[in-house]
Amino acid sequence: MAMAKKISWLIVAVCTLVGLYLRLKGTWSGFFAFTFDQGRDFLLLHNLVYQHVLTLIGPASGIGGVFHGVWWYWLLAPVFWLAQGNPRTVFLLFGILMTFIIPLVFILGKRIAGTFFGLLQVLLVTVSYFYIGIAAQIWNPNVAPLLTAGLLIAVWNYFRNRTGFIWIGVCLGLILEFGIGYGGLFLLSFIVTLFILKIRPNTSQFLKGLFGFFIWLIPRLIFDVRHNFIQVQSLLKYLGSHNQISDSPLIVRIGERLLLFHEQFIEAYGFRNTIVGSLLLVFTIGMLYWWWNHERILERKFYFRFLFVLIGMLYIFSVLYPQPLWSYYLTGVPVLFLPCVSLCWYNLVKRQKLLGSFLLFGYLAFGLYVHIRSDRVSWEGDAAVYKNQLAVVDAVYQEAQDTEFVVQVYSPSVIDYTYQYLFLWYGEKTYGFVPPRSEERPLVFNILEPEKWHPKLVEAWLREREGDGTIVWDKIYPGEIRVQKRIR
Asked: CA-to-CA distance for 280 and 284, rounded, in angstroms?
């Protein structure tokens, strides 16, 4: 038994290392997206770590006046300090942190149905495009899968022992704080699921759960008290506004949201292949129906009933949500799908060892083939890729030849947070000079990111600068980033 335990954890360790490679290989080479959100967050982290400007709220949400929780910044602050502000290092450390979902799902699967079930979940998560993608991109909604996996473990432990409800509260509070879109939908769905299944913790457990939940909201509450409850007022105004009526009728949203859930499943377990993902989905639904009629372990059956109802409630509330629903509002949903998909493979292999093992091996082999094939594709990246942005910053400094200059940036996102940060951090560290944002200098560089959807906006931006110096050269860099050198 001890040897089997060691072997199982060895397999988990190997899969974690493979997962780290798949998640970090692009980041190591500088092929990661450094966009509006990352630039904004890094500027704020710079102020937090080096200027000691404390904040009590996180990034802005899609609702005016309502913010994500500050714990996103407080999580990244020590990582940012360790990395000395280097985006590549911060991304690498974040990717390592997010890869810990692999041992987490092993623990979850092992508690649900044993070691083999846990290893199945490990294999699925290791090679999944979805879990690889969220680990390679620093963004607050991407923490949701890790927290959702922790929540599912806490729920299982509570169902078994009727204790530990505090950890359910802790996970729910963190899910809400790291992403108010997914967190709001998930919290509402979770509460309704508890009522539907008549899961009622005793008073002691309930109070502990409330404590675990609200402890994470303390910075948000302090901020609101200081600012006349601006978030509460903004949220109530948003919910009560007549402008929240969607352009698409309810019947259309039913199909749209179903398609969005389907896309999440394809991304997570279909290797971005619609045919493979759809076949797996049909197989999963069919196998779940068979399993439900044959399962005799009531504890396990109740847990999956909880998952089915929770997924169903998330879908219902996503349909009722009148505004456009972006995929990051459902970032944790693939984790809810994971035990269902694993259960199907588990039952197939247990009942039909030869056929099940052959199909499972073929499925995983196809996933590895897709990854190997994608590695062979030569891609220089677009304007959002960090490597290309850094090449532009280097080119600007080298062309300036130790002459002070100013930079003007056209970005489709309007505010050039990315270049503001790169010139602040990399310019100071490497060249000892940060170009001023408003002062006049004889030498000026215009950096223009491509505008694929509205190219005339770029033309208009350049027309506004006609006569602002003489164009010395006009070059295109990787990612189709255009740079002009002008002398005033």
From this structure: 6
